[in-house]
Design goal:
Distance between the termini: 51 Å
Structural class: alpha/beta
Helix content: 25-40%
Bound molecules: zinc ion
Largest sheet: 8 strands, mixed
Strand content: 15-25%
Number of strands: 18
Shape: globular
């Protein structure tokens, strides 16, 4: 009947793990047909996949990635003895990596990076793509040459991708691009939107690929570009992502140039709304928190990157209380582990506030962290990227991960306690399997292309 039935010991429904349930997947569409009682309602003739010792949950959504930055992991943790290091010195190393990659090398780095994501439990990636020109800063014959290389890598790896095509115009507000930023260049607005439309048309033929827009930041994109880009996104119902307030220097430059802070500028330009995902947002005033919350916007935290780069700590509790949704992303690929990313949203708040249980869902008379963190890693990311996924519900994409209930880091819990054990303490190796659109792309901790992708990545990294 074209239906596959997944039969795990436990599965996640409404923030809790429950026993005796099965997921029916419609093979043709790659979507969830239903979630049912495993004892009585299985359709005759369906293919059964027993998953003993496993719990099933929605695949994690990585809402903010720059896959090429996987190349500089581990290479930036030093400084000249007499100099200081910060985000801005890290950026120089990132530029060097960006300048040297051919389209084929970019593909190989992204391919390996996406397989690392799938192995860790991410089934969707939002790739914030700002590498556009050739190494000399000249356009490729096809302006989407490099975007296509990244998309091809995602399709080969089997991860769902939302290519967030970026524009990058200025080296700082009102300043020309620096020579080392030449590959990011967007010469003019119409050409950018035309190329993004062409990519979107092409992507309609590729399952698991969609396209959105991403003006890089207030540093790199003039304010008067924002409204037309947002209108483009609105007409086509695509996501609109932007780096916002990652560093104090960016906020100061914005205030000096425009007389308002970055989130206030977005409000003034009319681009603050539920379609917006503001990435980082680690330096907000009370007023900016209220603006983002009132707009029902998403804020994408990238805590493993933010602690690496010294960006600061997201006010996740205040933002969610104000009405914003928090999602997570791997950003610079310092660490690719969804459980680490979601738990830091809460743990960083605890360190700052010297309190506990900050980011929560209300459950009866209790406030609980785990269901809120799991939604941050799944539902909220899917919403930020405009994909129909992120929960075990009929009609959504059959994107799942399975975790190993026998893993030592989960020992000593029961179904009731599993969400907290997993979200706050689970080891990354608990993830055993990943399904994207109903296809099992990681099986028992094996992705079939991992050996060759790793070899190709090592070749690029060694050059
Ligand atoms: Zn970023």
């Amino acid at each position: 009947v074209g239906v596959t039935v997944l039969l795990p010991d436990l599965l996640l429904e409404d923030g809790r793990f429950v026993a005796g349930r099965a997921v029916l997947v419609d093979d043709a569409s790659g979507r969830i047909r239903d979630v049912v009682d495993a004892a009585v309602e299985l359709p005759a003739g369906a293919r059964r996949v027993a998953l003993p010792g496993r719990a099933l949950l929605p695949g994690f959504v990585n809402a903010h990635s720059h896959s090429f930055q996987r190349l500089i992991r581990g290479r930036t943790h030093w400084r000249p003895a007499a100099e200081n290091a910060d985000f801005w010195t890290w950026r120089e190393a990132m530029y060097e990596a960006a300048l040297r990659l051919s389209p084929e090398q970019l593909h190989d780095v992204a391919h390996f990076c996406f397989i690392e994501m799938l192995r860790a439990g991410y089934t969707t990636v939002g790739e914030f793509h700002y590498l556009q020109m050739d190494p000399a800063g000249k356009p490729y014959a096809d302006p989407n040459e490099l975007a296509r290389a990244v998309i091809a890598a995602a399709r080969s790896a089997g991860i769902r991708i939302v290519l967030l095509n970026s524009c990058y115009v200025t080296g700082g507000i009102g300043e020309p691009l620096r020579p080392e930023q030449r590959r990011f260049a967007t010469p003019e607005l119409d050409g950018y939107l035309t190329a993004t439309d062409a990519l979107r048309t092409a992507a309609a033929e590729w399952p698991g690929v969609t396209v959105g827009v991403a003006p890089h930041s207030v540093r790199a994109v003039p304010a008067d570009w924002l409204e037309p880009i947002a209108a483009w996104a609105e007409e086509r119902d695509t996501p609109f992502h932007m780096h916002v307030s990652e560093q104090p220097a960016e906020v100061e430059a914005c205030t000096a140039a425009y007389g308002v802070r970055p989130v206030e500028l977005l409000a003034r330009e009319g681009v603050l709304g539920p379609r917006l995902t503001a990435v980082h947002a680690t330096h907000l005033t009370e007023n900016e928190i209220v603006l983002l919350g009132g707009a029902n916007a998403t804020v994408c935290a990238c805590p493993t990157t933010e602690r690496d780069l010294g960006d600061g700590i997201l006010h996740a509790g205040a933002l969610t209380a104000a009405g914003a949704r928090v999602a997570v992303g791997t950003d610079s690929q310092t660490i690719i582990e969804p459980l680490e990313e979601i738990r830091l949203v809460e743990y960083h708040e605890r360190l700052r506030s010297q309190r506990r249980i900050i980011v929560t869902d209300l459950r009866g008379d209790r406030r609980e962290t785990a269901p809120a963190l799991l939604r941050i890693g799944t539902e909220h990311g899917a919403r930020a990227l405009g994909v129909q996924a992120g929960a075990l519900l009929a009609g959504l994409a059959a994107d799942f991960v399975a975790v190993d209930l026998e893993h030592r880091s989960l020992a000593g819990t029961d179904a009731e306690g599993l969400a907290a054990m997993l979200a706050l303490s689970g080891h990354p190796d608990v993830v055993t399997d990943a399904w994207v659109g109903g296809r099992r792309v990681v099986e028992d901790r094996v992705h079939p292309l991992e050996p060759e992708a790793t070899a190709a990545f090592r070749t690029v990294a060694a050059q």
